[in-house]
């Protein structure tokens, strides 16, 4: 067997390759860049929501030069980054949005648009309050140092310990490489961050530290930094150096190749594994906010799943208004699409539902909108408009006037109507029941009826989405629980 050092060396002296290799870690272009939609009825602002929103929204606007990965220690790779700013024009809501720094202050000053698809009361206190049904007080019960990511402690690793093998993905905020630790010859994944606001990077690192060792959460192995000083305006002291995050490697197969090969049991197994990661992060007071197939790494041979890319994740504090420009379009919950900022962990459960629907119906993506507004229309054509209007009424949300032209009245489409010869092996009554309880407009619990009823009767009245823990207990996963029990009794455990 060749000496690992020589293997490694030959990789770095390989012929020059194009850098646009198939991305395993791509992030959507549709994420936070520039101002979000101005919420109409939720225009109240507080210091906390401004800091959350502004730090969320100020994504990097940096392009990188093409990187040739020949003979590339990580230290050299860092030097290729430049800081050319460019502008994104994603949104159709405001052709001339206010500048980013003033956006959330201006939000309170904008006039209310004319009556929309449904007439709403404009009393901002009139809508139901929205607080997470579970884990609402986790961060409130933790010391400030747990969630105040501005004070994160980082012990910086040694940059020279890592070398780049090949590029495997790129996102708005980072470039991702397969790498090698030259000390122990372990494979790793190197996420080279673009010079973005240090607060966003601190948040990602703090969240990864808090989730360390959790089930199916990608492991952060090291954080290293370049010696080149960035010209970012607010980078001072140690933070003047662009960090790279070093992660465990997962031998991922792209979902477009992998999912078509899945059996019915595989889908049940991997969704159940993903739920373990989601319930764990929610129990730690953290919303992922970017659940999608691109961020779920699966090593099918080892039956190993990892939830990656915590760059948009955020700490949940009840009553805080968050930025709605998170998640990728096809996986955005209705709350984001109607500009409801007081969302919670249940956002991740919608994204999981959209992902699950695409897996069982073999339709990727399941809700295929060509803009954020069209995305809500695509959802309404499946879930119907009656429940949508009930949802808007309950939270006193006024739809943007543009929906007058594009949103008609639609009946609810039965889930069985999506079954065909190609997907029927994945679709069972349990699968449809599970999906139906995830893809609900209302992210929140309704008031229990005043007359006491049996719990199972009451459950028929519940209209909100399942939590990750409730989802794990669903009958759809009975075969997975059964297999796990058999493995345990046989003295073996599935890692």
From TrEMBL:
Can you name a GO cellular component term?
Answer: protein kinase CK2 complex
Task: Write down the Gene3D superfamilies for this protein, in alphabetical order.
Answer: Phosphorylase Kinase, domain 1 (3.30.200.20), Transferase(Phosphotransferase) domain 1 (1.10.510.10)
One Pfam family hit = Pkinase
The task this protein performs is described as: Catalytic subunit of a constitutively active serine/threonine-protein kinase complex that phosphorylates a large number of substrates containing acidic residues C-terminal to the phosphorylated serine or threonine.
Question: EC class of this enzyme?
Answer: transferase
Q: Name one GO molecular function term.
A: ATP binding
- Could you confirm whether the keyword ATP-binding appears in this record? yes
Instruction: Please report the name of this protein according to its UniProt entry.
Output: Casein kinase II subunit alpha
Q: Which InterPro entries match?
A: CK2_alpha, Kinase-like_dom_sf, Prot_kinase_dom, Protein_kinase_ATP_BS, Ser/Thr_kinase_AS
Decide whether keyword Nucleus is in the record: yes
Q: Family membership, please give it.
A: Belongs to the protein kinase superfamily. Ser/Thr protein kinase family. CK2 subfamily.
Instruction: Spell out the reaction equation it catalyses.
Output: L-seryl-[protein] + ATP = O-phospho-L-seryl-[protein] + ADP + H(+); L-threonyl-[protein] + ATP = O-phospho-L-threonyl-[protein] + ADP + H(+)
Protein kinase domain location: 162-477
Q: What is its EC number?
A: 2.7.11.1
Region described as Disordered: spans on this chain: 18-53
Sites binding ATP sit at 191
Q: Which organism is it from?
A: Periconia digitata
What subcellular locations does the record give? Nucleus
Choose any GO biological process term that the UniProt entry carries and state it: regulation of transcription by RNA polymerase I
The record's principal subcellular location, in a coarse class, is nucleus
Keywords (alphabetical) are:
ATP-binding, Kinase, Nucleotide-binding, Nucleus, Serine/threonine-protein kinase, Transferase
